[in-house]
Automatic annotation (TrEMBL):
Residues 1-18 form the signal peptide. It holds the Pfam family NAR2. Keywords: Cell membrane, Membrane, Nitrate assimilation, Signal, Transmembrane, Transmembrane helix. The gene is LOC107926608. One of its GO terms (cellular component) is plasma membrane. This is High-affinity nitrate transporter. Belongs to the NAR2 family. PANTHER family: HIGH-AFFINITY NITRATE TRANSPORTER 3.1 (PTHR34806:SF1), HIGH-AFFINITY NITRATE TRANSPORTER 3.2 (PTHR34806). InterPro entries: Transptr_NO3_Nar2 (IPR016605). GO terms for molecular function: nitrate transmembrane transporter activity. One of its GO terms (biological process) is response to nitrate. It comes from Gossypium hirsutum (Upland cotton).
Length: 203
């Protein structure tokens, strides 16, 4: 009985340990073996309207078999450093479970060893920010094993800006708040002037 409990406990402890070991995948440990490019029209892109053409494939300068463990490809839209400043909820962490750089899924599909192309319409819930595109290769356990992105390691080149669908409404809202503040102030001014006038005429 005691032995069984002991075995059970050790299995439990061991599986927890294995779980955490497996869970810790750091971005810096991944090899950049995928080539990712993104093409789109020039200028500010509009969420819900504009399209981005994403291409990805294995960098042919890696030896054959590099991709033998790749089962799935996951392509994501990621925040550029300029849009992460002072925003903890978009922070880059080396520990991929905690990383918040890439929050928007573009596609997740089985890996094939040929170049692939996808035309993606920017989803309506994408906020106003500067972005890049990253693809992860996942193994049969759905763990990241390699990546590629359309920007350099510093995330400075080929970035693009997206304007949220509500962008126009937000600026309209700001304008109307300003107008209301202005009218309240002028109303108060008018009220005090009237009061002063009334007091003067009483004296
Ligand atoms: C492919 O990989 C090589 C070696 O890592 C690298 O020098 C080259 O820039 C990569 N090509 C592309 C298009 O990323
Ligand atoms: C994928 O595209 C790159 C350049 O765009 C090319 O060098 C490579 O040979 C292509 N790979 C395949 C498997 O077609």
């Amino acid at each position: 009985m005691a032995a069984r409990v002991l075995v059970l406990a050790s299995i439990l402890i061991f599986s927890c340990f294995a779980e955490t070991c497996y869970g810790v995948i750091s971005f810096s440990s991944l090899q950049r073996t995928l080539v990712v490019t993104a093409s789109h029209r020039q200028g500010l892109l509009k969420a819900g309207e504009d399209k981005i053409t994403v291409r990805w494939g294995l960098n042919q300068s890696f030896p054959a078999g590099t991709d033998s463990s790749y089962k799935t490809i996951k392509v994501q839209l990621c925040y550029a450093p300029i849009s992460q400043v002072d925003r903890a909820w978009r922070k880059t962490e080396d520990h991929l479970n905690k990383d918040k750089t890439c929050q928007f899924k573009i596609v997740k599909k089985p890996y094939t060893n040929v170049n692939e192309t996808l035309e993606w319409t920017i989803e309506r819930d994408v906020p106003t920010a500067t972005f890049f595109i990253r693809a992860y290769a996942l193994d049969s356990d759905d763990h990241e094993v390699a990546y590629g992105q359309n920007t350099d390691a510093e995330k400075k080149t080929n970035l693009f800006e997206i304007q949220a669908i509500t962008g126009r409404h937000v600026s309209l809202d700001i304008a109307s708040v300003c107008f209301s503040a202005f009218s309240v102030v002028s109303l108060m001014g008018f009220f005090f002037m009237e009061k002063r006038k009334a007091r003067k005429s009483q004296q």
